[in-house]
Amino acid sequence: MTAGAGYDLLTRTVAHERHRMHEIAPSITAEEFAEHTDGIIASVSSVIDGKPEAVRSALLCLLAEGHLLIEDVPGVGKTMLARALAASVDAAVRRIQFTPDLLPGDVTGVAVYDPIDREFEFKRGAIFANIVIADEINRASPKTQSALLEAMEEHQVTVDGASHPLPDPFLVVATQNPLEMEGTYPLPEAQRDRFMMRISMGYPDAAAETTMIRQRERVNPLSTLTPVTDARTVRRLIEWARRVHVAESLEEYAVALAQATRMDPSLHLGASPRATLQLVRAAKVNAALDGRDFVVPDDLADLVVPVFAHRLLAARGVHRAGAQPIEAALHQILSRVPVPLVGART
User: Fold this and answer.
1) pTM for the whole thing?
2) Is residue 344 part of a domain?
């Protein structure tokens, strides 16, 4: 068997296994869902002190099959959060340090000529993992950043006309520094739109920072983490969250929120249809994490800012006292779009 034929067989095997796992993975109960997700949250929280919202957001993106962008100043735990999540799941994990000299092929992989078999063999890049940590993503050139576009949207990469499926589940956790920091490139709109959510870590409070000093003087907390679940179980958790019920009125509410961003005069660029879809997916996981099998309006409203804000552009000359213009516009939209009256699944 040639190297090229061997890789084709591997690709077909991976695709078959992904399909088989979808078909035969046994369903789980609500109690099992809560047990596994609580275990992941507890594991990550043992490393990330005082940031329960950030930990929940990371897990939410994993279970909603989205991707997470963590933007903040250096040293507040962006990479630590990504690594703690990866260490808590027994799955393939790769970290890519984005630098100005990083090439697209380093991310996706390249075709290398084998002089013995006289064929090109595909060498997989760092993107081939269940959890990919894209560290300081905005320090790489836009050309290299764009190497992630197909992978994040279609869970595959195409090199020399051949498509190669990525592992399942698949999550990109990217960190970036604010644009005013030296040596950064702005993420293109298309790249930002691939991320389900953007969050900021923020500085820890005094108690959490003191605890961090005491703990890390003795040992690196990441070295003590052991996986509390595996990729197959994560796949089952994802399937459970997919079955969460969304009333038609709430689907219409999500669309109304997105359309309002497109018509707001203070915004130059509104939310994309992809953003609407991801808002609903994130709301379903949010409901599941709260122990419900149905979505309520607050599941959508609470996630509008982290799901929509990074995709929007403020109109030129728009300034709002005491607030970021995009976040302020979203809060105003939430206040004026009618909230549907819905309850549990009917």
Assistant:
1) 0.84
2) no
